[in-house]
Amino acid sequence: MVKLREVAETATFAWSYDSMPLMATGTLAGAMDDTFSSESALQLWDVFSKDTPLAKFSLDNKFTSLAWSKPSAKYEKGLLAGAFENGAIQLWNSSSLLDNPDLTASSVAEYKKHTESALQVKFNPLQGHILGSSGTKGEIFIWDTNKGSSFSPGQAMSPMDKVSSFSWNNSQSHIFASAGNTSYTSIWELKAKREVLQLSYSGSNLSVVEWHPTESTKLVTASDSDGAPVILTWDLRKHTTPELVLKGHRKGVLSLDWCKQDPSLLLSSGKDDSTILWNPLTGQKLCEYPSLPNWVHETKFAPKLPEVFASASFDKKILVQSLQDTSPPVSAKVNSANEDDFWNQLSSTDTQQPVFEVKQAPTWLQRPVSATFGFGGKIVVTINEQKGSYIKISEFKASKAVEEAARKLDSAIQSSNFKQLCEARAEATEKYTGSNDWTALRDLIDNGKLSLIKKLIPEEKNDEDKQVVDETSVDDEDFFASLGKEKDIVADFVPSGEFTLANDGSFESQTAEKLLAGKNEEALEQCIKDDHILEALVIALNGSESMKKKVKNAYFSKYSSKSTLARVLYSVSNGNVGDIVQNADIGSWKVIASSVLAHSQGKPEFNENFVKLGDRLLESKSSDARDNAIACYIAGDALDKVSAIWVSELENLESFFLKQEDESSTPADARFKALEETIEKVLAYQSTNSATIGSSPESLQGLGHAYREYAEALVNNGHFDLANKILEKIPDTVPGMRLEKERISKSLSKKQNAVKPKAYGGISQASSYAAPQAQGYTPVTPAAPANGTGVSPHSKSNNQAAPFNPYSAAASRAGSVATPVSSKAPAAVPTGLAANPYAPRTALDSLKLQKSPQPGHPSLASSMTPPPPPKTAIKKDVGGWNDLPSTLSSQPPKKTSVPSVPSAYNFHAIQEQNNTPPISRTPSQQFGVPPPPRTLSNTSVSKTTPPPPANSVHQPPRSNKYGPPSSVVQSPQLAGKAELSTPSSGRNTPFNPYAPKVNSQSIESAKIPQASPKIYAGAPPVASPGVSAAMPPPPRNPYAPKQGDIASPAPGIPSAASNIIPPPVTNIIPPAAPQTVPSAYNHAESVPPPPPSFKAQSPAASPAPPAPPAPKYPPGDRSHIPESAQPIYQVLTSELEKLKTKIPEKFSKHLADSEKRINILFDHLNNEDLLSEQTIQELVSLCEAMAKSDYATAAALQNQIALEHVGECGDWMVGVRRLVTMAEAVNQ
Amino acid sequence: MVTIGNAHDDLIHDAVLDYYGKRLATCSSDKTIKIFEVDGENHKLVETLKGHDGPVWQVAWAHPKFGVILASCSYDGKALIWKEENGVWSNIAEHGVHQASVNSVSWAPSEYGAVLLCTSSDGKASVVEFMEDGSQKTMVFQAHAIGANAGSWAPPHKDNIKERRFVTGGCDNLVKIWKFDPQVNNYVEEAVLAGHTDWVRDVAWSSSLLSKSYIASASQDRTVLIWTNDTVGGTSPWKKQLLTEEKFPDVCWRASWSLSGNVLAISGGDNKVTLWKENLSGKWESAGEVDQ
């Protein structure tokens, strides 16, 4: 039992209707307590908090009954009515009782109509001011407490005596029941003014009556006779027999209370000292509460708090307790082996506990309905209706603001073009903190990362800067042309006249002597010592480095503290403006910025300097400090710093939007708009190539938060794919990011069916893909399947024991057919893009995927799992270079922060982009066929359990060779993507042209058992450095030699793997690890370059980067260059070597770049792809001219080739051109 | 839209999606908890958890960083912790400090660790921390004079995760804010919000990241109050506002905020679920009704 309070009174009681009910007690008439006191008291208690009464009043008469009315307008705490043994009925204002020590002051009325004792008072539950009273001699009165009037309920059917029980019907205010010491219970009807029914039960009297809480025809009666202490339930529509007989009391029942809130709960108490809880609807005894020491004459639920009830006993005790008790049984509490202890513990423990026979929860705890929200804008509702219970999950889109933002952002992301978005924002009329950023971002997108800072630097400075910048420009031909003529000719000074060498002991003569003796160092010391810095400098000019250093130190230590010039000289002479950036007056920050531009560009500290400058600007808190700092940070590629500023302005933005009155808007929308603005800025900034994540992801924590919040808002409106794409921009290493990505991708994986089609439909291939396909690409289709599946044709032909010829024929045909189309290759790109959203996946998903119905293509599967090229890495490296080869843009290439810009990797990609010769078509075509990747990678999932070994086990060797090692490792991740992409291959119209064939083929190929490896076993192992030895030779190799110039893949692309790894797949992975990756990448270089991603990132670039061809030999391999092309290799190599020693240092980068480009050419030659015989011949002539230092001829030939064989000229041609220019400049 | 019929043999009291929106846990007066996998339009019953000796009122998924963990609470006075590992569900912990029905369970923001808040008909609230070593650290205190019906955690404080709060609602018609006091190493009453005229059935603290704090309280009195505070823990008092002047047609059983905290769903005893949003002038407007 959970005893709440014990009141030591022998009393009748009533509960108030308060939420925390008060209890009124009135000394019970007819009962003696141990003091034999004849005093009577009315007391009010707060049994939940106090042991002592709130109020106590003495009276002359003892109570027989107490009743508390519901609160009314007149009596805010209700009326309290007492019935007395002298027949009086007293009414008090209960709120006044609490405030007023004088009982009579609270008295509302006294009714004296009962001739002997009044035994019972009850307020009408529906008409609160109506009171019923019953007493001896069959007297029953109905009182209107408002008017003070009373009437008799009418004629009784038979004479009554003591009417000790009275109960109002709970749904019909004019019906009540009475019972007493006659054996029957009477039902009265006040409209008819008579007793309408009598209930009786043979063998038992019906002395207590109580109505059902809601049903008007049902009631319960109890017998106070010890012989048959039963409780009966009745339905008046069938009044002859009771419905149920509730047996459990051992002696007569004195009191009943039917719970008003829950009809399945009924309390009874009686002469057996017990209180019992019943379910009167089923007749079950639920619980017997601990017995009191004497008869329990009354038990009542607190009307507003039925969790609590009180039982009053003749033994001077009213016990207030809770209905429930789940505490462990006493036996569990008292557990002592020692007998004395046992009794001690027992006595100190509350041993009395209710005995629950049936655990029945009260209905007020049974929540009938519940709605909760779930991730992704879902709402789950449980409904319990009569016809049954069910659960419904629906989706809910809450915010128009989110919808709009999602639409705009989605299109920007799809096209990777944020310019439009920036322009729209920049044009917005409202101005607020950071609204200027949009203009800045637009410039940034147009003009590169230095555009902002240059704008801020004064004009004249600007020009100088340009010069400096242009010098570093790789593309400036004029500069190269003038390189040779650039040497300034200064006429040498020749002294004349006589002079003496007398040693007069002066400084001059001493120094001169030392100099004449060749003791230059000593002379230098002397000069420094005697403060002749100028002379010292002249001496040092021809001296050693250490001498120069010495003088410099002497000079700076002397002057730098007083002379600005010296200070500046210090930095300039060291080529490091760090000191200026750190210490120069920030007011002249523009000058500082120019100095950084002039002196640090291309150096590792360039970014650092700008970041430092930005920091100082921010600290200076000058006007415009923020905007200027942003310009500096952007120049310094400091995404973390820039975003930190933006994120810190979130709240300002939020309050700005809050103030924009918009009827349909909500504070949440305002917050979202603020987030949207911030995130879009960052995305726009990231869309330019310079933004880098930086090495400390922790610094992006704030941004990460904003990203997550934004993504969740999107997701909660159902935009999973978009959220996914946005999160891709932030590396997993940012705190909390991985979990969020996982969350979205996990939910997404489940949604795939629903989401996918939509996602695909909405994605860019709609435009860019569809168009090319319609025009140029279609003709190629026939060839596509053959190449597209790469492997399958082989497997097939093997299976059929078909000769090889058919294949090569097909390949060559494919090549020629494809020719005209080549520029349309981008088709592959959008595919990749489309797949993007699904990129990050977890192993868990891939497991799930196994269920997906794509049985067919295990073999391809593994081969399709490429390493996920980190998008950012690609983007960054590629970015600047991307523009270059296209020749369309005359703009100088952007300097990216990563000095090692052109990895071999990129060059391949670039090459692909520019070279569109017929032959290369074949390979690229393979990539142009989107479907295989999907099917493939999909299957890979089902096949591939995360650990790499699985791959090799499951898959035929050829899979190995196609899947570079890294791919194996990455497969789980990829798997996820694949999962999503899969279905699209079937559904998506753009793919259809290719899909069917490919699919069928790949399925066929899948059927081909492990036999194929065997067939290939004899294939010559082609050196593929990037691909580990574990990889068996590519199956293609056997054909390669035979095919000769036909289908040979670009050598630059390592291993056959690239063949298969379709650009789309590569593309899918963009997010991944950005900065960290490059190293992984190098390794991955042997893996196919993902040219499409170029497309993805810089749509503005040339229209059609063809997909990567299948290289025959790894890049760098020169052993297969045919005889005819050997001169090219030899001459160019030697020219490069010669140049390396001669080129001024500041152009060594350009040379390195050219070398890389020329290596691409060598790769082509080695693989015998791309270049036609004629081109090769012309190149040979060019080289011969170069060897003879006939640069004019060489340049002319170069032009000619460039003009006549545009399709074959890619990046390599730029390299050749530069080589010619440089060689000419240097050797003149 | 997914409809799951006949999931239980008796009334269903709660159904909650997990962190990813993929698994659904339901609980019922039939004393069981069921786990469904929901995939698009499909659903599949994966497990029925039995262990409670009474109706199960509420279930709550723990943050996935703690594993696949579900808490449930029941009329039997207990909260049980369930865990799935390798597809096998088991009951890993029991929280039995209450003397009456445990009416609500809710996991604290995951930053606090695996911390569970329970409220009970015995008027008490308890906070159990499940430590990594498998032990439990329990704090119990009287939250309401009788009948604590619901509890809900405040989102983690921006700067100080030690500043932990939650709200409870009880049969005393009150809503109370509790704050962790490290000095007494327990939760102490920070604010008592009076406004309802009948039992507070549910309380929900919005996870919104707006500068204001929002609490919704749904009551037996057929009203919903929105309590707001600009500076929780600061000097400004909580302001109350009726969600809608007009009373609901039936008892308001449940209030729940959308994940981003901007939409409020009110579940009424008439089996209607209505949705609400605040407009910029601070008034709450209907945002529709969930179709049944």
What descriptive keywords fit this protein?
heterodimer; A: 1228 residues; alpha+beta; Methylamine Dehydrogenase, Chain H; Serine Threonine Protein Phosphatase 5, Tetratricopeptide repeat; RNA Binding Protein, Prp18, Chain A; 32 strands; 45% helix; elongated; B: 292 residues; mainly beta; 0% helix; 56% strand
Which shape of chain B, going by the Cα principal axes? globular
The chain-level mean pLDDT of chain A equals 69
Quick one: biggest sheet of chain B? 4 strands, antiparallel
Global structural class of chain A: alpha+beta
C-alpha Rg of chain A (nearest Å): 48 Å
Biggest interface:
A-B, 79 and 89 residues
> What value does the Rg of chain B take, in angstroms?
18 Å
**Shape, principal axes of CA atoms of chain A:** elongated
Biggest sheet: strand arrangement of chain A:
22-23-24-25-29
Residues in helix, % of chain B? under 10%
Strand content of chain B: over 45%
Contiguous helical run count of chain B: 0
Assign the CATH topology of the domain at 3-325 in chain A: Methylamine Dehydrogenase, Chain H
Biased composition (Polar residues) (chain A): 789-802, 914-927, 935-944, 981-991
Protein name (chain A): Protein transport protein SEC31
WD repeats (chain A): 111-153, 246-279
Membrane topology (chain A): Peripheral membrane protein
Structural account:
The complex is a heterodimer of chains A (1228) and B (292). Helix content of chain A is 45%, strand content 14%. Chain A is an alpha+beta fold and 1228 residues long. Among the domains of chain A are: 3-325, YVTN repeat-like/Quinoprotein amine dehydrogenase (Methylamine Dehydrogenase, Chain H), CATH 2.130.10.10; 400-458 and 551-747, Serine Threonine Protein Phosphatase 5, Tetratricopeptide repeat (Alpha Horseshoe), CATH 1.25.40; 1125-1225, Up-down Bundle (RNA Binding Protein, Prp18, Chain A), CATH 1.20.940. In chain A, the strands form eight sheets. In chain A, strands 22-23-24-25-29 form a five-stranded antiparallel beta sheet, with no helix packed on it. Chain B has strands at 2-5, 12-17, 23-28, 32-39, 42-50, 56-61, 68-74, 79-85, 88-95, 102-107, 114-120, 124-130, 136-142, 148-153, 165-170, 174-181, 186-194, 200-205, 213-219, 224-229, 239-242, 252-257, 263-268, 273-278, 284-289. Chain B is globular and about 50 Å long. In chain B, strands 2-3-4-5 form a four-stranded antiparallel beta sheet, with no helix packed on it. A four-stranded antiparallel beta sheet of chain B has the order 6-7-8-9, with no helix packed on it. Chain B has a four-stranded antiparallel beta sheet with strand order 10-11-12-13, with no helix packed on it. The model of chain B has no long low-confidence stretch (mean pLDDT 91). Helix content of chain B is 0%, strand content 56%. At the A-B interface, strand 27, strand 30, strand 31, strand 32 and helix 21 of A face strand 1, strand 2, strand 3, strand 22 and strand 23 of B. Chain B: It holds the Pfam family WD40. Chain B: This is Protein transport protein SEC13.
